[in-house]
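Continuing the batch. This is chain 6 of the set; chains 1 through 5 are on the previous pages. Same settings as before, nothing changed between runs. Recording input and output for traceability.
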Amino acid sequence: MAAAIRVPSVPQAMMVVGAMVFAGCASLRQADTAPADIEISAIEIDAATGSGTVVVTNQSRRRVLIRTNDLVWQEDAVIRRVPRPNLDFGDDAIVLTHDARLGAGESREYMVTPAMGALRRDHPAIHVCWDNRNWTCEAYWLVPAKASWSTLIGRNRLLTWIAAAHNRLQEVEKQTTDDARERARRMTEAFDRDLAVAYTPERLAAASDEELEELFQAANRVVFYAHGPAHAALLQRTAQSLDARSTLTDAHRRDLYRAWVVTRQFDAANALARSHPGLQLQALPPVPPADVPGAGRVVVWRPADDAEALSAQVVEQDVPTRVVVLSHPRCGFSQRAIAAIEADPVLSARLGDALWLAPPNGSLDLRDIQAWNRAHPRARLSYAVAMGDWPQFDSWATPVFYFMREGRVVATVTGWPREGRARELHEAFAQMDAPEDP
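Output for chain 6:
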């Protein structure tokens, strides 16, 4: 069963996901396109023959007209001929079997017959038309490709199975904004299931330039959220393929550097920085050696006060009570939080034993962390080495206050609006300190 193929809205726009709706800072990445207006879902498609069922859903706020050719049909549809609309596949007329007006949120199911021959009118076609003073139509040709489905958008763009799988990955990204653990898990699962096979040297060599770019962005996306070293290696392999075609840009190199940093592969990041001094990438200190901490323990990295160096420190997680604060000096909400806490003697005292952590991200920002530690000696920041060390945490935004008992999170306070979070922090302390029910 194939998953949904998301069709970009027309015209395409840019958006940013991960907005700061909680008065905190989140790692932001730019989405590729605006949310799709039309969704084409493949249901029970036979990859060998290309026959089966598709559902077209209008997700826009306007009514659209759906026209289909004679390979995409409904029972009792009226058959008529109209000229081929603005497509460079010859001068033949296209046979349309159905005109359907879909209101906002409405869906319609179509049967698809086997596709045959070259990419011409003998492939299933769906035309989506909308009224912008004059009716405008966009054509979507459903083409079996590599045991999956492809869509030709408009005149020139081929949405291959790679792009379709990348779209599905972006759907997971949009659907899991509230839980970092679930997002990392589901994006890893979707990537490994749908895309990992495309990163073999043979398939990368055979991929088009557009497919290589899709593969780079897909790997970059899963590394950004899941921090997997194996995915960073696939990102590097794709970057090497782009470089071999002279299509690797400085933006690609910066993404690769951030991938090395977030996956804690500092030697690779430093090698990239040295080979491209013009990018002015931050040189990173050596990764501090550390023994396996054992159950209930985790390693964090402590920055040196006056040198570009890190040291490993073992932290006990399974203590009776602990407060962990995620914070970052470049987050204005974290700056607002520490200023309010230091101005409140009671809160400052209660948080005096808290563990303050900078989340893992694509930049070490060592000098900023050191400056924070000099300015706030009772809230010294260390580095969380990996998200997986703290599976209890469902958010890595900043600031977040996790109140823990015996290694379990019992209360969470997120963000720092203008009115502050003092009341919520006192309530969380009370919840953490309250005796457990027998």
